[in-house]
Amino acid sequence: VVDVRTITSQTGLFTHDPAFTATSSCESKITFIDGNEGQLLYRGYPIEQLAEKSNFLDVAYLLLFGETPSASERETYRQEIEDYSLINESLKTFFEGFHYDAHPMAMLMGVVGSLSAFYPDALNIRDADTRRKTALRLVAKMPVISAAIYKHSIGEPFVYPNPKLGYTENFLNMMFSRPNQDYEIDPLAARALDVLFILHADHEQNASTSTVRLAGSTGTNPYAAIAAGIASLWGPAHGGANEAVLKMLDDIGDISQVDKYIAKAKDKNDPFRLMGFGHRVYRNFDPRATIIRKLCHEVLAKYGSDPRLDLAIKLEEIALKDDYFIERKLYPNVDFYSGIIYSALNIPVNMFTVMFAIARTAGWVAHWNELVTTDHKIGRPRQLYTGLTQRNFK
Ligand code: ACO
């Protein structure tokens, strides 16, 4: 049941649609979702085909520019990504200001927001070269900043990006290599991460992307708009769900406890929800979850089984047969299985949402770019005032 009303107020006619359940906020040519059919297309290409045949950097280019790069465009683009991946040395002092156990998303929000101080030129949004530079700088720097956050949290020196490595290989190297120790990058880990990044790269007007667009509509510095998107992503109802799923699986602990947690999720007096279940748009299945479930089996076949996968499979099996979940069309979403893969790759739980942010940066910058290159007004939702009528102050 949704509460959408058309209201005539003293100031005119408007639609009251709390939580935007039935309201489109913009036109976009980037991503298409058919929630009833479980279909997701980036620039017309099915997500299944991109996950199988493409790679994250090409997909980021596709989202941004509308087509995957030609061979010569790819060469220029990869060079730009490499050039922009270095972060300003004085950012290091910024990291030092954070306590080692600060949540990585809090640090990410702060550091990315601070880039607006390093790149005031980004405000020149009418210039196509500047916009390209901003978009590619963000895509290039996000994994570097994210790995630096992890290194800061464990007290190890930062690892610089290595131009010889691919995007996800570089990320793994910056996360896990240590001075004077050999670190071998596993191609399966790099590919698994690449597929996860493709699946998370965009999802039309979700909360964080809408936040980026709303902030961007004011003409603010794009780095600040992306920091706003990071803030919005953090919550457990959105990107924070991947972290929450693993915590939930750890809490459940054993298959014998699954029924108890399903009952809790159905109890309207209990705030507990099955994390990684349900989606505002998908009312059939989330196509990304299907790809991730398969990937999860592939990764665990190599890295060794994880009892949490058995638990997740059982939970899914029981929930999908339960009238409560059937009636409400609640299915596993993209983040039901992603955390199990991240965990197998040794990525700590509190970094999961940061992983999501690295990937979603491609979508955020594509939407920001689309917004500022098309006719737009400042985003300004209306409200239905329910407070007191005018009274006199004595
Ligand atoms: N567990 C139990 N019940 C649920 C769940 C859940 N995970 N999700 C929804 N419901 C129930 C609600 O209680 C409500 O029941 P009611 O009609 O009896 O009141 C009904 O299903 C509809 O739920 P809403 O909250 O109205 O649906 P909405 O579209 O607003 O929320 C959301 C979508 C936030 C994803 C929700 O399903 C949820 O909280 N899921 C868990 C968190 C999660 O996995 N988030 C990640 C989303 S995907 C992403 O951002 C990458």
TrEMBL record:
<dbReference type="InterPro" id="IPR016142">
    <property type="entry name" value="Citrate_synth-like_lrg_a-sub"/>
</dbReference>
<dbReference type="InterPro" id="IPR019810">
    <property type="entry name" value="Citrate_synthase_AS"/>
</dbReference>
<comment type="similarity">
    <text>Belongs to the citrate synthase family.</text>
</comment>
<dbReference type="InterPro" id="IPR016143">
    <property type="entry name" value="Citrate_synth-like_sm_a-sub"/>
</dbReference>
<dbReference type="GO" id="GO:0005737">
    <property type="term" value="C:cytoplasm"/>
</dbReference>
<feature type="active site">
    <location>
        <position position="279"/>
    </location>
</feature>
<dbReference type="InterPro" id="IPR010953">
    <property type="entry name" value="Citrate_synthase_typ-I"/>
</dbReference>
<dbReference type="InterPro" id="IPR002020">
    <property type="entry name" value="Citrate_synthase"/>
</dbReference>
<keyword id="KW-0012">Acyltransferase</keyword>
<feature type="active site">
    <location>
        <position position="335"/>
    </location>
</feature>
<dbReference type="GO" id="GO:0036440">
    <property type="term" value="F:citrate synthase activity"/>
</dbReference>
<dbReference type="Pfam" id="PF00285">
    <property type="entry name" value="Citrate_synt"/>
</dbReference>
<dbReference type="GO" id="GO:0006099">
    <property type="term" value="P:tricarboxylic acid cycle"/>
</dbReference>
<keyword id="KW-0816">Tricarboxylic acid cycle</keyword>
<protein>
    <recommendedName>
        <fullName>Citrate synthase</fullName>
    </recommendedName>
</protein>
<dbReference type="InterPro" id="IPR036969">
    <property type="entry name" value="Citrate_synthase_sf"/>
</dbReference>
<keyword id="KW-0808">Transferase</keyword>
<dbReference type="InterPro" id="IPR024176">
    <property type="entry name" value="Citrate_synthase_bac-typ"/>
</dbReference>
<comment type="pathway">
    <text>Carbohydrate metabolism; tricarboxylic acid cycle; isocitrate from oxaloacetate: step 1/2.</text>
</comment>
